[in-house]
């Protein structure tokens, strides 16, 4: 369909000209922009680097890859592209592959410099809107690479089969577009594509639920298989992806080892007992009365006859396994799914979510907090440089002031306050500032409620803040007793952020064998079940610590999305496990 230059000589010349009078020449005009003879120059450094990546994927040399730009000549034009214009192909998916080109993502086109003007490109995507104005049709095509998509201008007189296309084209259709990048005279978008070919790959039934109007996020959760095509969910998933990549990059730069900890476990890291049990004792058709029992009197199930020979669960945390490998590799991190069988229907809880859990040897609580703050800021900096348009979308339509909030986190050091001082400040807020909390003023020894956490982050500090040295009674068994107050508190911290509350929970781990055994006894934990965890203290124990970051809450913080169910592809919560 289109020829493309791939010779070294072609690149050396680095100049291609489309002359007036070619069947796809620069003389085309639709009353919105008039183009003369166009000289195409090499890409700027950023675009060239991207093309070199494409070339490597295609098995071409870097020089050949940089030259892979479509050039049209009269001799190369097939019969379908006569002087009267291009063609429209309906229901011919294979035709989209006949041009010998690689598709180009919309984001790359819109972020390119002006050297891209006049370039012939292929774009695949889904139709968001169609406007037929007789002489021209304007189609917005989105391929998921950005919020806006790109406008396709289709001249009715230039393309054969135009009327048939307009009958079949609708919101939700998938298309392939071949055309030329031109300057857009409209506001809000630098470029648009003047179509030479529009190929309908897949039609959309009239029942397609995502028409051109705003849809509530609650409704979108009922169609989780289609909601990625909306602006808000698409942007949230792009931000989520960029954050995950940045997290891996942060730890890789600091020589952390990425560890895959088990999904199936017999250990309860948190000691809360809110775990999903995994069993093979209930295959299809087995009745409860047929389960193996320990004895007739107790009625308890005999899990020794289960697949693993013991009770097994979906993991609530990879921390304990992480401690094992930190005791040999020094610095590790996990990034994987975790599960909690909590019957919580809040905007902050999920039954299945992802956790980032670093574990570091030879550190104290101060080191843990420093690492957590550095990681948060690294990710925010990456988002500001790589996800600018998505963050602007969230700032405009989801949470006003989001960008300023994120920038403040980058500029300012995080606050730090002890639990004891935090309790004092919260009580002072009630007595002196007449602040009303639903759960009242907290007393020392009680856990902070979300409203207390948000007051500290949003009102008192107006930025993220670490609260540290919590009472030992309200924290997990593995957290290290503080020596300075005879074990009244533990060396633990929570990072509280505006709009969310708790984002990170971390601590120095109890590395002293006898102290840990005593704590396990106080928590009612069976030493025999944790024999391997105790071994870490028997053989070369060291001070160590780490933290857990709820990834979805972090995505919430960075996007301003109110409900955690809208920042994970397929949310799992009480009563919902579809898709």
UniProtKB/TrEMBL annotation:
GO terms for molecular function: asparagine-tRNA ligase activity; ATP binding; nucleic acid binding. One of its GO terms (biological process) is asparaginyl-tRNA aminoacylation. Residues 237-569 form the Aminoacyl-transfer RNA synthetases class-II family profile domain. SUPFAM superfamilies: Class II aaRS and biotin synthetases (SSF55681), Nucleic acid-binding proteins (SSF50249). The keyword Protein biosynthesis applies. Its EC number is 6.1.1.22. Keywords: Aminoacyl-tRNA synthetase, ATP-binding, Ligase, Nucleotide-binding, Protein biosynthesis. The keyword Glycosyltransferase does not apply. GO terms for cellular component: mitochondrion. HAMAP family: Asn_tRNA_synth. Belongs to the class-II aminoacyl-tRNA synthetase family. This is asparagine--tRNA ligase.
